[in-house]
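Posting this for the archive.
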Amino acid sequence: MSETKNDLAWSKLFTKYNILNEIEKKGFFEISSIQINEFREARLATKFDHKINLPKLFRENHLSILPVTRGNYVISQFEAYKEFDEMNTEVTNIVFPEYIESIDYKNITSESMAINCAFVSGILSDFFQDDKILPTVNGRMSSDKFSFYINNTNTNKSVEVKVSNSQIEIDGGFEGKESLALIEAKNSISDDFLIRQLYYPYRLWNSKIAKAIRPIFMVYSNGIFTLYEYEFLDTCNYNSLILTKQKNYTLEQFDVKLDDIKSILNEVQVIEEPRIPFPQADNMKRLINLLELLYTNDMTKEEITTTYDFDPRQTNYYTDAGRYLGVIDKRRENENIVYFLTDEGKRLFNMNLKLRQLKFVELILKHSAFNKVLKEYFKVEKMPEKSDIVEIMKKSNLYRIGSEETFKRRAQTISSWINWILELAK
């Protein structure tokens, strides 16, 4: 697996400051932004929103890093991340106010825009069950002083961490009669999140006002707002958070019917297989989310890997999947590979949500193996066995698939994408 700039920088830092030995002796290592800046800008070298973004030496030694002052960080075997749980898969439709012209809710390109849409449409009022909420606090601010306990995965015991005026950022704060909701917003899908993004703002405002503080994580992707509400059962325990509520919303009607899918299946013109690796990217939602990010900005392989919930191998898999569908392309700039949307990819985001989903269906079913598997599904009224999918693949003239094991891995992507298509009509 190729090394990122963060991998290389931290390898030098670990060697220069003998970090692993220091952690073994003291249980932690404190490092300053000045020290980090010698090898990489500290802002970039310490931003790991997801566990998979951690540099190689951190992952191998089960380490995480947390800020403790404006320019200092502590490294240890912290249990710093939490996986997302899903309590509810239903999607609630909310009507966007017709008189609002300054927000294009069909083309949300940033976290701040997603928060504004959620507020003016009434999504936040519905989720908080409070029609009197108003925006009050946001932006960067100081954490003040506090201490907390966090699980150490090496000793399986809680250790104390002291924080003094670390910088925090709140994407959106909304106050009602009885509570203040603090929102961390993302426009990218991930498996986990850094608890600090909720905990540090929670500790700051929990000490400032008497009202209850409601830590909220909001994810916007492909027309869906997903809100997660957490509660810290013990104010001084970083790992005491539990999910208390989760709900999904959309501002667009996209009632895809099974007949819409069957119509595309029967009418689409199957194309010759491209000379691009056959997809090994099981999560279609993640692929669509990657396209959303590329619609806003072209991204290097390094940028995708270090900012999205991908490792380098997954970056290759998902960008290749986009290339296979004809919606992503790449170019070389100096020493970097830069990924960007094709004209076909850009056109997707000029469509309403229903047409966009159906266009994705068409792009998938243009390919023989996917087309044949879905036809077989409708014929037998269940997903074909993996062995049957492999046989279909072997007759579809796929590019560079040799071993039986590779066929089986790629067959998983076919069944996953077909399931995504079928779920559109549920």
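The chain has a mean pLDDT of 95. The first strand starts at residue 29 and ends at 32.
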